[in-house]
Amino acid sequence: MGSDVSGRAEAFGRLYAQHSDQLERVIRRRLGHGASARDVMQDAFLRLWEKAVDAARLTPAYLNRVARNAAIDHVRAEAVRRDTVRALADLQIAPSPPTPFDAVASREELDAVERALTALPSRTRLIFLLNRIHGRTFVEIAAGLGLSERAVAKHMAKALSACERAAPRD
């Protein structure tokens, strides 16, 4: 078995010596740059070795196809890496702190919503606060106030509409 492996290694060595430069050119044309063409070509030969392909059966046409496929795989992998790095960079960018103008605008918006809520009928305001502040469901609110769920939904719609009118968004 040891001579089998060494014979295979010798055959692959000859194949590499005969075809590596030409396959590197194929890959370089596909990639558009030469920096990684030799690495991709070596990876292609490594794949052939790992698949235990008989070197004697490898035709130049087959080797060209392997080289083209390795280049395509490399381009795809680079695109995935680039997209991943971009996505991670986007996640790592911290939002800028609010400006004094933003703080004043937020306070004014909050004041307008508070005025709108104060102007609502007391039952509508209570339903809004129970839902949005205290986290009660429409079912719980309806049961607690002796109303139907539909009535609670109408009160909530009225309260939300008042809040939206009071603090319009861009």
From TrEMBL:
One Pfam family name from the record?
A: Sigma70_r4_2
Recite the UniProt keywords alphabetically. Sigma factor, Transcription, Transcription regulation
Task: Report the residue ranges that make up the RNA polymerase sigma factor 70 region 4 type domain in this protein.
Answer: 111-163
Domain of life (superkingdom): Bacteria
Ribosomal protein recorded as keyword: no
User: Which Gene3D superfamilies does this entry report, sorted A to Z?
Assistant: 1.10.1740.10, Winged helix-like DNA-binding domain superfamily/Winged helix DNA-binding domain (1.10.10.10)
Give the RNA polymerase sigma-70 region domain ranges.
Answer: 15-78
> InterPro entries per the record?
RNA_pol_sigma-70-like, RNA_pol_sigma-70_dom, RNA_pol_sigma70_r2, RNA_pol_sigma70_r4_t2, RNA_pol_sigma_r2, RNA_pol_sigma_r3/r4-like, WH-like_DNA-bd_sf
Question: Signal peptide location in the record?
Answer: none
UniProt keyword Metal-binding present: no
- What family does the Swiss-Prot or TrEMBL record give for this protein? Belongs to the sigma-70 factor family. ECF subfamily.
| Protein's name according to its UniProt entry | RNA polymerase sigma factor
